[in-house]
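INFO batch 0412 | record 1 of 1 | parsing
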Amino acid sequence: MRGSEHHRPDTDRSADARVAVPRLSQDDSHWSFYASDHELAKSKRKLDQFLLPLLERLDAHRVLEVGCGSAAFPIWLRDLGYEAFGVDPALRPVITDQYSYLASTDGGHLPHEDRLFDLVYSLEVIEHVGARFRARELASDVRQQRAEFVAELCRVSARYVFIATPNRLFPADEHAQDRRGRHGFRLHSPFEGFTVSASDLEALFAPNGFKLASFESAEGYYALERVRRVFGRPGEMVSRTLLNMSSVPWLAKSPLSPHLFVLFERDQ
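INFO prediction complete | emitting tokens
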């Protein structure tokens, strides 16, 4: 799959002017939750305040989102002039005829050429590879599945891979639901295998010729609605303080950092 020649993205356009997102994911998928106007508005804010600044700083024009869910980011990025692609197993299989830049597949089987993209990014996905949070089950070969997942991300990237995921060393993550089915938090041991640490990620990327380039800031990534709902304003303030540590390497690698925002760069 080849993209067209690079051209300068129109990053000055406002989020409100961007195209609407059609229902591309299957109705019974996890991603149907994110198809509401409220969630799409949050995604637009994340695009403007987090993803676009990252792409601009890295001078990345041809990009792939692995685990794109509702496909909002690839669609909006295309509207802004980026060569954006997306894959997700929850996408309706028939959509590939209408959206050639989207594919209904998982990150372990990417239908793209080697080193095609400036940046491959995957947000809140790697912890789900080989894991079923609701059933509290891990596949017997979870490590192998995650190694194969990372190897595919690295294979199709010419320059960078970006990962956002909960930090295994922090005692809580966002993979639970309350009695009303709303997304919430769960406590976990730092020794369990559902989530990953920065060291885990480094060990996965190193065999593929990628080195840890930087820990990125969480600025603009979270609206912290769930934190505010469960813990109130004081909890939100504490969370923002902790998330501000995400770009400090020694803090990001510690149990004080709730989330990892890690950029890997091709080293060979």
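INFO post-check: The chain is about 30% helix and 20% strand.
INFO record closed
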